[in-house]
Amino acid sequence: MLSLSCSSNELTDSAAPVAIILSNEQTLDRIDLLPGAAGCASNIAEVTIRSILKDPDPNVDQKFNDVRLRQYRITYRRTDGGTLIPQPFTQTIDMFIGAGSTGGLGGFRAFQPEAINQAPFAALLPQNGGRDPETGRTTVSMDVMLEVFGETLAGSNVSGSTAVPLTFCYDCGGCS
Asked: Which of 176, 167, 175, 173 is nearest to 137 (CA)?
């Protein structure tokens, strides 16, 4: 299981009484861009979101430390030496996580539908040469960065993030 979250500086510097920690259980690590490729209908990862009380006090009502998540942002970071990435985007959500509780973000959109026809993926298509022009490889590797944003019921802003490493290819035996 891959687990990345806010850095320790963010956790200690934030004024929010809770920290949001994201972890993911990756289900796919290779994405075959061939239309209809086997195994590509599943989510790339199941994301768990934990709300951790920074200074739990059993004598204090924690209901105002409950969290409402409002949106997530997807960005990308190439890990293969290339620089071209898909366009980042933001998606609206409405998710409630009680203080000190755990929730899940099952299916999340990791790419916009038109991304396959744009750089860097378009270069992997056979009609475009089948190779990434930046690396010369038949694959593109990158981290999909998922960051969620929300606030406690008391109004403190909270966020957390995780990364999902993926390799993209064309006609390489399906997604796995």
From this structure: 167
